[in-house]
Design brief:
Length: 136
């Protein structure tokens, strides 16, 4: 059975967040996009639903976390090269993101994190496809 992932994120300003992800080169699924939500297409099996805070609150009884002050998760997105890691983070920073750390080079894996406009942590990473897991 094929599964799809829909990650839901609360955002302060839906229009600004949509523009931010458009700057990063993402496209959007119009069937799940309206004045309260934008559906970012990651790939054919993964989507990020940007929900206006008021709409997000319809789905939970919990208080919303201030993602600019607290970490709720690190959303990791793989790309096909080290250069693509750098390119995506530089685009994000130019579009208003803030840095979350310096690039991390582990040899077989390279990554770099940024915080989007709402403080959600995103990690863009590349992993060497020829690397095999080492025994413990």
């Amino acid at each position: 059975m094929s599964r799809k992932l829909f990650l839901n994120l609360a955002v302060h300003d839906l229009d600004k967040s949509t523009a931010f992800f458009a700057e990063l080169g993402f496209s959007f699924e119009p069937r799940f996009t309206n004045r309260d939500a934008t559906c970012v297409i990651v790939n054919e099996h993964a989507y990020v639903l940007l929900l206006a805070e008021k709409r997000f609150k319809d789905f939970t009884k919990k208080a919303l976390v201030d993602s600019t002050a607290s970490a709720e998760a690190i959303i990791a997105l793989s790309v096909d090269s080290r250069q693509h890691v750098d390119d995506m983070v530089k685009k994000a920073l130019a579009a208003g993101a803030t840095p979350a750390n310096d690039p991390q080079d582990h040899g077989f894996m390279y990554g770099w994190r940024f915080q989007d406009l709402d403080g959600h942590l995103w990690e863009t990473f590349w992993m060497d496809p020829n690397h095999s897991a080492r025994p413990a």
